[in-house]
Design brief:
The complex is a heterodimer of chains A (about 500) and B (about 150).
Chain A lengths: L3 E3 L2 E7 L2 E4 L9 E4 L2 H7 L4 H9 L8 E11 L1 E10 L4 E2 L11 E10 H4 L3 H11 L14 H10 L1 H6 L5 H5 L17 H7 L12 E10 L2 H6 L7 E8 L2 H18 L1 H5 L9 E2 L3 H36 L2 E2 L2 E2 L3 E7 L1 E10 L2 E10 L2 E2 L18 E4 L7 E5 L2 H6 L3 E2 L9 H7 L2 H10 L3 E4 L2 H6 L8 H11 L3 E13 L1
Parallel strand pairs in A: 4-5, 21-22
Antiparallel strand pairs in A: 1-2, 2-3, 3-4, 5-6, 6-16, 7-11, 8-10, 8-14, 9-10, 9-22, 12-13, 15-16, 17-20, 18-19, 19-22
Helix pairs in contact in A: 4-12, 5-12, 8-10, 10-12
Chain B lengths: L1 E3 L6 E6 L5 E7 L2 H14 L11 E9 L2 H19 L1 E14 L2 E12 L11 E2 L5 E4 L5 E8 L1
Antiparallel strand pairs in B: 1-2, 2-3, 3-9, 4-6, 5-6, 7-9, 8-9
The chains are: A alpha+beta (about 500), B alpha+beta (about 150).
Chain lengths: ~500, ~150
């Protein structure tokens, strides 16, 4: 058995899918790492585990600081870090949410098959590329006044429905029904609003993507059916995007505000990005209202893309194609960078907690009151995007996740190689050609963006998913493979 | 990749490995020059800044009690300008840092162009304090190191 350690601290193996960092006196709770030996090899190479150790020193942290199987080094919290704090005497950390507030994933099911889409895949990508704007400086096709932007921030998907961009079914199948009610647009700075004003419904760049995918394998037929995933060869559509510049600026603004208003607290931190505010402080309250507004923007952002994707499919396939109705139904929409109020049993007592998920997906098990009726029996759909050219997965939430991980599971593949190294190794054209040989078609706003996001820069998503499944914090439902990819 | 000043032994900036984000080190004969080069390093991640025409002019003024905050806020201004104005910086005409009553003031004049005419990729999400370094080296030159969330 291989022994792991970081910065002279030993890591104990609990079982094949769970490790624990040696506990020092400064740590209020242990660090638990959900990983296999193969994933641990990469994890100990960067700073992720030591960043999780820093999390354990935060006030009020409950039970464990958690590291998900896809974790890697971030700033403040690692990406793939989960921590929960009591709502009355804990803390709130903007860096523990991440800069891209409500970065998340939407999955749409269709009644089309690979054979239906194959003859038109290039045309479909061209139409999508025209309708869903991506890349640097991409502008929304919706013009919002300042007052309208505030309505988006406060209203979330309710705003989108009122304006004909969303259906009630979309709303029902979205975390928080696409609207965090505590949102207050007044807590979002004018700078953040200025950054986001013309970006609603745009994909962005970097690791964000829009993919036409093919259902490749179904592991749990009954659950898959409940998720509108019926057979191998079925076409689905996945969007991975967030709250764009608006959300990034909200995080920056509050990080800076904590720095200005709580300098003594900052001075004691191992790194400034870990900045937090006590839950009772005005900063924490304002942050939660601003974060909720940014999250609502994120849901509307993905929803507007859904609207444009539906328009694109209708243009290419008509409303009926090969005697099939072309309807793109929302399976679910998850937020993987967010703080939520959730209730857990701690030492036999039910407690309300601020659960921070930074690069982690909520994984509510069956019968959770916050799940839509359609998913009460199954548990929550978990949507794990791969990277360009690699598999994506649908899993389902479990009772074990409720007990062990504050109902959290990974959020995707997680990088293993820096962009700097990727640019030296790969060329965008070469990546595109290699993927086309595998029957995966790409439309991208830039070549260099492709090389930085080459499949080899990511962890093996299959291994990440296997660990979740074996550890029981997210059970396998279906595997999706890419067919057409749109990237910024 | 390192970008050299003509006839200079020190590169203006270089990129370092960071698993998830972008990390660079900018150099300068003075701290001010290192700050100036950090802007160039940041935009050169998005496009070849040598090809950008310096036709637009931006005046920047930042006040902060600490140097790291000054650098954070200075670079954050450009993250914002990219989203709001599509501005790509490629030339720093002047950059002065002064200190008075425990408060630093940075004034800079920066030139560049709108992204529209260039092959630009990626994005700038936010500046971080992660591994931020502002220091004078033994040989008297300065380095500025920043991790940008992209």
């Amino acid at each position: 058995m291989k022994k792991f350690e970081v910065s002279g601290m030993k890591i104990k193996k609990i079982n094949d899918y769970l490790y624990e960092l040696e506990q020092r006196s400064s740590m209020n709770v242990p660090v638990k790492i959900f990983a296999s030996e193969a994933l641990m090899e990469n994890l100990v190479k960067d700073n992720a585990i030591m960043q999780a150790k820093n999390m354990t020193e935060m006030p009020g942290i409950q039970k464990n600081a958690l590291i998900m199987p896809d974790a890697h080094q971030g700033y403040g919290f690692p990406v793939g870090g989960v921590a929960a704090f009591p709502i009355d005497n804990g803390c709130i950390s903007p860096g523990g949410t991440g800069f891209d507030i409500n970065c998340g994933v939407r999955l749409l099911s269709t009644q089309l098959t690979k054979e239906d889409v194959e003859p038109k895949i290039k045309e479909l990508l061209d139409v999508l590329f025209q309708n869903v704007h991506c890349g640097v400086g991409s502008e929304s096709n919706v013009r919002l006044t300042h007052a309208e932007l505030d309505e988006v921030l406060n209203g979330g998907l309710d705003w989108a429905k009122e304006h004909g961009y969303a259906t009630q079914h979309d709303i029902d199948h979205c975390e928080e029904n696409g609207r965090m009610k505590q949102a207050d647009a007044g807590k979002v700075s004018p700078t953040a609003k200025k950054r986001g004003k013309n970006q609603l419904g745009t994909l962005g760049a970097g690791n964000h993507f829009l993919e036409i995918q093919i259902v490749d394998e179904i592991f749990d037929e009954k659950t898959a059916k409940a998720f509108e995933i019926y057979e191998k060869g079925q076409i689905v559509v996945m969007i991975h995007s967030g709250s764009r510049g608006l959300g990034h600026q909200v995080c920056t603004d509050f990080l800076r505000r904590i720095e200005d208003e709580l300098p003594e607290l900052i001075a004691k931190l191992p790194e400034k990005d870990l900045a937090y505010a006590p839950t009772s402080s005005p900063i924490a309250k304002d942050y939660l209202q601003a974060m909720a507004a940014a999250a609502n923007f994120g849901w509307c952002n993905r929803q507007l893309m859904v609207f444009n994707i539906r328009k694109s499919f209708a243009k290419v396939f008509g409303t009926e194609y090969n005697c099939k109705q072309v309807e793109l139904k929302t399976v679910y929409d998850v937020a993987h960078n967010i703080v939520k109020v959730e209730e857990y049993i701690i030492d036999g007592v039910s407690k309300k907690l601020y659960v921070h998920r930074k690069g982690a997906t909520r994984a509510f098990g069956p019968n959770h009151k916050e799940l839509p009726r359609d998913y009460q029996k199954t548990g929550q759909p978990i949507l794990l995007p791969g990277s360009m050219g690699t598999d994506s997965y649908v899993l389902v939430g479990t009772d074990k996740a409720m007990q062990e991980t504050f109902a959290s599971t990974p959020h995707g593949a997680g990088r293993v190689m820096s962009r700097n190294a990727a640019n030296k190794l790969f060329k965008g054209e070469q990546i595109k050609n290699e993927l086309e040989k595998r029957n995966i078609f790409i439309k991208s706003a830039s070549w260099k963006g492709l090389s930085e996001e080459a499949p080899a820069v990511y962890k093996d998503v299959d291994e990440v998913v296997r660990v979740s499944h074996e550890a029981g914090i997210g059970k396998l439902v279906a595997k999706l493979v890419p067919f057409g990819v749109l990237k910024g | 990749m390192e970008i050299m000043e003509p006839n200079s032994a020190i590169p203006k900036f270089k990129y370092l490995d960071h698993t998830s984000e972008a990390k660079f080190q900018a150099n300068g004969a003075t701290m001010e020059e290192a700050f100036a080069h950090s802007v160039l390093a940041m935009f050169n991640m998005l496009t070849d800044i040598k090809k950008v025409k310096p036709v637009l002019r931006k005046e920047i003024e930042i006040k902060a009690p600490k140097l790291d905050t000054l650098l954070f806020d200075f670079l954050d201004q450009f993250v914002v300008l990219l989203d709001t104005d599509g501005f790509i910086a490629n030339q720093v005409d002047s950059l002065k840092i002064t200190k008075k009553f425990e408060m630093y003031t940075l004034k800079a004049i920066v030139r560049g162009d709108s992204y529209k005419d260039y092959d630009v990729h990626g994005s700038l999400k936010a500046i971080t304090y992660n591994d931020m370094v502002i220091k004078q080296q033994k040989n008297g030159t300065w380095i500025v190191q920043v991790v940008v969330d992209i």
